[in-house]
Predict the structure of ABC transporter.
Amino acid sequence: MKSLLVATNERLLYRAAGNTAWKEWAYRPGLVLQHHDHAGVGHLDLLDGQGLLATWRFTLGQNLHAIRLVDQFGAHLESAVSGRPLVQALKNVCPSCKAPLEPDQEQCPICTKVVHTPPSTWTLFRLWRFAKPYRGQLLLGFVLMLLGTAASQVPPYLTIPLVDKVLIPFQNGQHIEPVTIAWYLSGLLGAGLLAWVLSWAKTYILALASERIAADLRTTTYEHLLRLSLEYFGGKRTGDLLSRVGSESDRIAVYLSLHLTDFASDVVMIVMTAVILFSMNPYLALITLVPLPFIGWMIHFVRYRLRTGFEKIDRVWGEVTNVLADTIPGIRVVKAFAQEQREARRFRDANKHNLLVNDRINRIWSLFSPSVSLLTEIGLLVVWGFGIWQVSKGEITVGMLLAAIAYIGRFYGRLDSMSRIVSVTQKSASAAKRIFDILDHVSSVPEPVNPVPMNKVQGRIEVRDVGFRYGNREVNRGISLSIAPGEMIGLVGHSGSGKSTLVNLICRFYDVSEGAILVDGVDIRSYAIADYRQNIGLVLQEPFLFFGTIADNIAYGKPHATRAEIIAAARAAHAHEFILRLPQGYDSMVGERGQGLSGGERQRISIARALLIDPRILILDEATSSVDSETEKEIQRALENLVKGRTTIAIAHRLSTLHRADRLVVLDRGRVVEEGSHDVLMAKEGAYFNLYQAQARNMDIDMDDAR
């Protein structure tokens, strides 16, 4: 039976496991239920004005339930104290978990809360799916490791006859044949050389396999990231994702190629050494095992603290890389507003936080490792004492004692090395967890099981009663729209009216929450995502250019385009002339995010990129809003070539830029409120008329200011 903690409409109830009696606390002013976690253990504390009434602990697997209980407790307490009915207190609730929300709250604090559960060492076993293709190499490496370890066990055993049959007799004046000495020394040399060759081959083969495992892991993670929807990236920081794909996979590669193979070698060495020791002298072998229970207890004690600590280190390191990922791409803004000191302070604070978390782990680890070394030294001292006593009794020879000491030294050395694996294992488990957090995430825009093939696309678009939510916030609702092939429509409305969201839904960057969007009579969710998007050309308000040549950026959507096709697209986009003025023409390098080009030049390259793939559906999202009037005319001429014969959806704040649209669709608060041509909508004197008049007044004010 589990313990139960229940929030009713009148009181908080608790029943301990195995107990039938309930404790209760009636709701009253000043009663507080607090939630927090420390070192991976969650806590719920019940307090009032007098102090702590009760506390409960739980694993973080129950964390969401605990958060929900606290929120429900607060709602019931407010209802009981204020006298308002609970229905009124909970009138705004999350549709998924029914948690209470503030009147203007858009995101549910429970559904959107990230729960950081400590990584389990078992997470590392999930890497087998990446190791499976290399199981032959891994098996060969393991066999070589067994043979190499066996070869390394020969030299201590040869010390028995060397001491008992050579050194001691020689010390007592007996004649020893040089050939006998040569055979023993040759055996030592041969065993050493064989162990070296086998160890080299083992290390090389396992390193090759582990690097390939890590490379496959890195590639799979990146490819999975590319398949995730924009919704996933909206809640992630660039620096954190870079850290996961880059440094975390490198950490796993080092663990597999170095630490894990060393650990396996240590285990084999310990087993072989234990077998040899028991065969030589069981009593001496049993004395050797005296420190093991203490070392095992220390490993168990430290392992959990290291596990939670290293996972926290990874999160904090993500904060450091996030500052870099924010600042370096936005360095122009930083310098423009003279915020270098502020960004340096942000980095310093994040780095200091990282240092503090590492210091906590180092305090634990700095005590653990020397303690293990001390225990092994004490164990070796006990073995020496017991061995000398056995030699004095004549139960073992001096050579056997020295050989046993050599084996025991190796045993304790490998035991100490194995204890150190706790640290790197927990670090690698944390890294694996962060990578599998990406791989386990299912895209909210899934591929169809049996995709409908896209043949010749006509470009007819139907939006049927579409609704969409960002989290708990309803953005679009009840939108119905029909766009004929080759028709150009303009989406207009105030900021936040849902224009860009509708375009994102048509591009299938997100999936609709309600209704459906059809292209040529087929639900777009039935098309393969890549096939569908290859028929869509997108020109954004802020065009993104990649680091590379002008030609590479134009040909991004069609990598195998010929130079003639690239130039033709640039001519149609009115970009050819300014490209030729660049030092290397089409082979001129573009800086990261288009550095070195003006906004209008970047936009025309973006239009050329869209022209080259010859899309049937064209999306223009504020394509001319961030340029001057002269550049806007150039872009408008380029757009005239782009929209010919294509189904076009254009968003523009400047209503004058939509004069060529066949139809205008006015959105307000996520709904279509008007639809028609410019003249028809102006005659209605409705929402569009008010927008147009407001813009005209603003333009007049701007012109007066210019005078």
